[in-house]
Amino acid sequence: MKLKLFFTPAGINDDQITGKTSVVIDILRATSVAAVALHNGAREIIPMATLGDATSLKQKLDHSSVLLGGEREGQKVEGFDLGNSPFEYGSSVVENKSIILASTNGSAALIRAGEAEHCLSCSFINVSAILDRVLELQADAAIICAGNKGGFSLEDALCGGMLLERLRSADPDIKLDNDASWVALEMYEKHKHNLEAALRDSDHGKFLISLGFGQDIAFCAREDSIPICPFWRSGRLIIEE
């Protein structure tokens, strides 16, 4: 199995995901939110790249069973039901609901990565479940960091590095197949003993703290607190049965 890591979705060619497993990472906060919402009983997560697309889709669906979630500049969008904090997606809110999610970075990354043969949504809080599924699929994989507004994000790269380290430990025959994967692995080795501190020092982490979302960072830095694997099917994330 060969693994490539991409620091952003920009410039990913079709041949880099066609027939492969893609793993999307948006630690702060879309893929963390997806894991929480599905774990708490949401039926599905439907990523939308734009706010207009999200609003239009809700108008076509049964309003009683659909919630609009997402953010711009870290804050809940006016008129949306939910923002992008995992603490908003409790079971009393999301159980048996479809969540239309329009985040700044993660939604677009998921839509692009969904063109792969298999697509998984990864975060620190569910990394072992993703590890197990990648090993089960036994296909070459593209680990895609959502990044931050088209640029590099430390938190996504660190989670990518963690996944790479665990995959290599589980299967010594796995090969890292591009420079970015080696860089992510080295960054994770440097910060793995205090991931929360690294997330707090990251650009986006500091931005979220300035908005009052410091507790989100602590939550999103927890390893394996939610043992589920969100799986892409027909334009949405579900928990595969």
Features:
alpha/beta; 11 strands; putative 2-phosphosulfolactate phosphatase; 20% strand; five-stranded parallel sheet
Description:
- The chain has 241 residues and is α/β, with parallel strands linked by helices.
- The chain has a single domain (2-231), classed as putative 2-phosphosulfolactate phosphatase (Alpha-Beta Complex), CATH 3.90.1560.10.
- It has ten helices and eleven strands.
- It is globular, with a radius of gyration of 16 Å.
- The two termini are 25 Å apart.
Uncertain ranges: none
> How much helicity do the residues have?
25-40%
Instruction: Specify Rg, calculated over alpha carbons.
Output: 16 Å
Strand proportion: 15-25%
Q: Which structural class should the secondary elements be placed in?
A: alpha/beta
Q: Specify the CATH architecture.
A: Alpha-Beta Complex
The overall pLDDT, averaged over residues, is 97
Spatial separation of the terminal alpha carbons? 25 Å
CATH superfamily, please? ComB-like
Strand order of the largest sheet: 7-2-8-1-9
Largest sheet: 5 strands, parallel
What is the CATH level 1 assignment?
A: Alpha Beta
Number of helices: 10
CATH third-level topology: putative 2-phosphosulfolactate phosphatase
Number of strands: 11
Order of helices and strands: EEHEHEEHEHEHEHEHHHHEE
How many discrete structural domains? 1
Mass-distribution shape:
globular
